[in-house]
């Protein structure tokens, strides 16, 4: 049995493009983490999510965690509209990294990695940032934006895997293929 240890509808949709049958069991692992390196942080949380679900239900379990990083800082999910505004202000006009750590637990062993995509934002004026914050889109997303939604407009270019920005790098699907899963059925 393949299990996606995630409550994110976006992760479920992306995996469903490649794999017909899997279960979705969100992790109960704590997201409290003091690591300061963004890659280490995303990896640690991905591992916790995957192992917590693996220990409960077994099978092959996928966990992932996405962070936005700029100037060595980690931007997670905003806790308020003010924080969402501050994050978008920080990202305006510059290049940042979106990092997704992933962990696949298979037959009691883990395969893990971190995928980095660079994203360049246009200059955003305050009026535009507030209008975007009021759409409600930023609130459940790392870095306070969703490239798949209205914030697609903010993006001048990206380098790397687009799906990684949405939270599910296709490197995960590639690893599943290496483990023998049929990723192109139908
Ligand atoms: C930057 C960016 C992030 N995101 C999302 C991906 C992730 O769902 C979220 C980051 O939070 P995560 O903690 O990685 O994931 P989650 O809490 O949504 O789900 P779970 O822990 O149960 O797997 O931000 C977008 O959807 N689009 C974007 O452009």
From TrEMBL:
One Gene Ontology cellular component: cytoplasm
Residues with site note (Important for substrate specificity): 10, 66, 148
Gene3D superfamilies associated with the record: 3.90.950.10
Keywords, sorted A to Z: Cytoplasm, Hydrolase, Nucleotide metabolism
Residue intervals passing through the bilayer: none
Cofactor: a divalent metal cation
This enzyme's EC code(s): 3.6.1.9
UniProt xrefs under HAMAP family: Maf
NCBIfam families according to UniProt: maf (TIGR00172)
Annotated protein name in UniProt: dTTP/UTP pyrophosphatase
Organism taxonomic ancestry: Archaea, Methanobacteriati, Methanobacteriota, Thermococci, Thermococcales
């Amino acid at each position: 049995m393949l299990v996606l240890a995630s409550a994110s509808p976006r992760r479920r949709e992306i995996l469903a493009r490649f794999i017909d049958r899997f279960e979705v069991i969100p992790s109960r692992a704590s997201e409290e983490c003091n690591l300061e390196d963004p890659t280490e942080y995303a990896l640690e949380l991905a591992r916790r999510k995957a192992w917590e679900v693996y220990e409960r239900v077994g099978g092959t379990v996928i966990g992932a965690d996405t962070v936005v990083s700029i100037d060595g800082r980690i931007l997670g999910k905003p806790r308020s509209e003010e924080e969402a505004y501050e994050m978008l202000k920080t990202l305006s006009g510059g290049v940042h990294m979106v990092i997704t750590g992933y962990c696949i637990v298979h037959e009691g062993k883990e395969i893990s990695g971190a995928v980095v995509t660079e994203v360049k934002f246009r200059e955003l004026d305050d009026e535009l940032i507030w209008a975007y914050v009021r759409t409600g889109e930023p609130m459940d997303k790392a870095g306070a934006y969703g490239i798949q939604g209205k914030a697609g407009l903010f993006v001048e270019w990206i380098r790397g895997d687009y799906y990684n920005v949405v939270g599910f790098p296709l490197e995960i699907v590639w690893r599943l293929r290496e483990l023998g899963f049929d990723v192109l059925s139908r």
